[in-house]
Amino acid sequence: MARTVLITGGNRGIGFAIAEEFVRRGDRVAVTSRSGSGGPEGALTVAADVTDSASVDAAFTEVEAQLGPVEVVVANAGITRDTLVLRMTEDDFTEVLDTNLTGAFRVVKRASKGMLKARFGRIVLISSVVGLYGGAGQVNYSSSKAALVGMARSLTRELGARGITANVVAPGFIETEMTAALPEAQQAEYRKAIPAGRFATADEVAKVVAWVSSDDAAYISGAVLPVDGGLGMGH
Question: Catalytic site residues?
Answer without folding.
Answer: 141
